[in-house]
Amino acid sequence: MEEVMTMDLEEKEDGLEALKNKAQLIANDIIKEALETLRELQKKEAAAAAKYKVNNITWSTCKDFTVGKGLLQIEEYLNTWELHESWLHWTNYLCDEELEYSTRYHYRVRFSIPTCRKPIPRATANVYFIIEISKIKPPTFPVEVFFVVETNKLIHRPGESRFKEKWLKDVIESKIYMMKAIGF
Known about the structure:
The longest helix is centred in the N-terminal third of the chain and has 50 residues, at 2-51. The protein starts with a helix and ends with a helix. By secondary structure, it is of the alpha+beta class. It has helices spanning 2-51, 67-78, 165-181; strands at residues 88-98, 102-112, 125-134, 144-149. Strands 1-2-3-4 form a four-stranded antiparallel sheet. The protein has three helices and four strands, in the order ααββββα.
């Protein structure tokens, strides 16, 4: 009887060991497949990131900033945007705003698409830039730059979001639609 129990116990241990080995093989296969899938996704993501590069420029330091230099740098940054050549724009300085820990310089860039049939555009789209000069960071740090497209609340930072021409078109289309709805 003891022999039978010992055999049963040995068989159970052998079966348990075989089950552990099989589970280990299955777990290893799953981990291997997950790693392969992860590598493939990372390759695809890297290819997509290379395809849609977010452009930026080297912004001036806080100590070197002037209103005129800010205007020139905004123009330089606008040249990195992928816009159709029919878009025209002009940039102007609006004002400065003194805060406790920084000074903000406000700029406006107006965009329009004049045509031969309508040289005076029916509507324009504005992009508002803010260049912030910190009073507490070292003067060798670069300025902080933000921009907002008219009618949108989302604040963009150069180098972090890719500008889309559609944003300007949407603003102009909504203004034209609104003017049609209101009778003059």
